[in-house]
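Appendix B, example 12.
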Amino acid sequence: MMVKIGSKLSEIKRHLIWFATRLKKLVGTLPQKYVAHLCSILFIGLLFVVCFLWIRSGNHTARQQEFEAASPYVNLSSLDLSQPLHKTLLKESLQIFRPDASVQNDSLVARAQRYAAADMAELQALLRSGTGMAWSDFFNILGMYVSFILTYLPVMALTYYGVQTLAIFRFVQEKQQRDSYMAQFAQFIQNMPPYTDASALWPQVRAGGVLLLKAAAKGVLLLVLFSPAYVLSYSLRSRFDTDTFFFMILLGVISNGLLITYAQKFHTFLVAESYKGYVQTAVVKNLNASYESFPVQAIFRIRKQFPNHIFQHIYLNARYQYILTIKEQASFLITGLIIIEMSLNIHGHLAYELLQNMLYEQYDIILFILMCLFLIVKFTEISVDWWKDYEARRYENG
């Protein structure tokens, strides 16, 4: 028997040595930053696994006892805990009979309200929540995770396009020395000559009205772009069919100031590049640097190219510097998507499931969802680093 155990241990040791050797060779060929990414994934993954095994959800017996303690107050026909007055009366009544258990009284009232508000399906889920994460929960969350990724990827692509487009549009307008619509309207009023003929006055009034409409539209657009996700979610959820994939993508792109914040960063890179020496050298060598006849349609193309213009080089260098900023943008975006899903209360989505399991104190499921979100962030960072290295090799070879 001891011989068999010894041979098994020797075989396991041999496999571990082989695996360690292979891993060492693999790590030796990777750049240091990718090794750091892998180490962080392994460390955080190990930490989550330890916490997952250590912090288990409350057991079924404790959950059943909680329900039995709260059920007498849930089933009272004269008590409606959804009304603040009834809730306050129950809390004050418990305080009279149990004055030394203020914290327990508040907890009992909260549990009673939770059980009273739950329908039969939710109640069964709440009572089962003490048994921990089952395989059905695992595959259910995995499906939500895939859905979250399928929302995250197009939102990231659209925001990347929108950031560049807004920044370039603003940069070109500054080079063309265009004033804001309100400044143009003020200048228009100041320069408008007196008219006595109504037919001659009408075209001027129409031109001024167009400027005011453009200013108002720009103001509304900026208001939407600066609005937090939960404000837009609550204001739109009663007016549209908000339980849609495309609505989630739209809201993820336009809310939380994401476009404005990172368009400003990209614009900063453009301005910094425009003052560098190679730009002045190109101007001296008669490369086109005029923005008066700048092709506006080129700004809105998906693949932005500005051939035979100095801005092509300004844009490429600014884009190269912006690549690493996408890591920060990704974290910002994921936070925004979580807020949107929670505020909309969309059943069957990852953030809603996270919120529900916080309510049910299902800590193992919470840890699993957080680990999934962490992996999205890390794989985004790895992809961004790979993209930066790829662009660097292109510049070196070019």
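DSSP finds 18 helices and no strands in the chain. Residues 135-175 form the longest helix (41 residues).
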